Amino acid sequence: MSQIIKLSSDDEEINLNPEHLQFTEATLNEFLKNSPSWFSYYSQIQSRAQLIATMYEDRHEQIYSEKFKIYKTEGGSDKFVEASAKTDPDVINALKNARKAKENLNCISGFLRALDKANQNALNLGYNMRKEMDKIGNSIKSLNEILN
Predict the structure, then answer these.
(1) CA–CA separation, 22 vs 118, rounded Å?
(2) How far apart are CA 136 and CA 142, in angstroms?
(3) Is 52 exposed, middle or buried (0-12, 13-18, 19+ CB in 10 A)?
(4) Residue 51: CB atoms within 10 Å
């Protein structure tokens, strides 16, 4: 099942496609040929997601500071002003956006780790297949020598 995530508040969607993690003995060469491209693509997406997460975190801090300053000019203790700023709807919304961006970044990072693991598994499978082919080849040579 594919996981589609939105990177930012605009309509930028990324499809974390689990088909990019799958291979069989029959599709091993194709997987090994394509996996570097997918890794590069998702690494670029991860960098973009990191930038977006940082921008949302910065925006949250900016809105919080602005609200703190506004509430402070109205008067009150620092604790009261801090509580007022933290519960302001704009600050809460900015915090939600920052957390969602962080979640997206974590999803992409996890997908990249899975892609890396799939690539390691594919290389191991290829190595084991070559070892088996060598054994079969040696067995066929021995059989031919016996028969001849």
Answers:
(1) 7
(2) 10
(3) buried
(4) 14
Residue with tokens 């799939």: 118
In a structure prediction context, what are the per-residue pLDDT tens digits for the chain, which is 148 residues long?
667 777 766 667 888 888 899 999 999 999 999 999 999 999 999 999 999 999 999 999 999 999 999 999 998 899 999 999 999 999 999 999 999 999 999 999 999 999 999 999 999 998 988 888 877 776 666 655 665 5
User: In terms of Cα–Cα distance, which of 91, 100, 87, 97 is closest to 64?
Assistant: 91
Whole-number Å distance between alpha carbons of 22 and 147: 42
Between the alpha carbon of residue 15 and those of residues 52, 65, 108, the distances in Å are: 17, 35, 10
